Amino acid sequence: MRATRVLAGVAGVALMGFGVSLLLEVRDLTGVLVWLGGAVVLHDVVIAPLVLLAGLVAVRGRARGPVRGALVVAGALTVVALPALLRPGRTANSSVLPLDYPRNWMIALVVVAAGTALVLAARGLIRRRRPPT
Fold first, then answer.
1. How far apart are CA 59 and CA 67, in angstroms?
2. Rounded CA gap, 122 and 20, in Å?
3. Rounded Cα gap, residues 111 and 103, in angstroms
4. Measured distance CA(19)–CA(16) in Å, rounded
5. What SS3 state is found at 44?
């Protein structure tokens, strides 16, 4: 267990170093800072409260954790996909947005929902197979 944590920590520090190296290459940091500030505000003001509220209202008991996790992942997928989803119509250059992003976003959300359903089903099976104590 400890080796896994150390390995994850080393990988995280390496990725942060790579991110900083990329950030140092940016000539105008204003756009990056606005984007990062917007991401923080969007998460803290919109996504996190909605996820917590939906998890509180929609689900009770043992399913709350997996459902909240799925909502966080769905929210993150949506935030990442927003620029492509809000892009109006076709562009003059077909290589700019060559894929069907709304369809792919929906497929990703269905995969998250199916994964959550599988986790909940597996938990239910494990709970039923446990001998009563």
1. 8
2. 40
3. 12
4. 5
5. helix
CA 47 to chain centre: 11
Q: Please, what is the Cα angle at 12 between 40 and 116, to 5 degrees? A: 70
* Burial class of 18 by CB neighbour count within 10 A (0 to 12, 13 to 18, 19+): exposed
Task: Give the three-state DSSP class for 87.
Answer: coil
Judged by DSSP in three states, 88 sits in: coil
Q: Residue 56 in 3-state DSSP? A: helix
- The residue count of the chain comes to 133
Q: Which residues of the chain have pLDDT under 70?
A: 59-60, 88-97, 132-133
pLDDT tens for each residue of 5-41? 999 999 999 999 998 898 888 888 888 888 888 888 9
Quick one: CA dihedral 43, 46, 47, 52, positive or negative? positive
Q: How far is CA 92 from CA 84, 95, 98, 100, in A?
A: 15, 9, 11, 16
Are 87 and 97 in contact by the 8 Å Cβ rule? The answer is yes
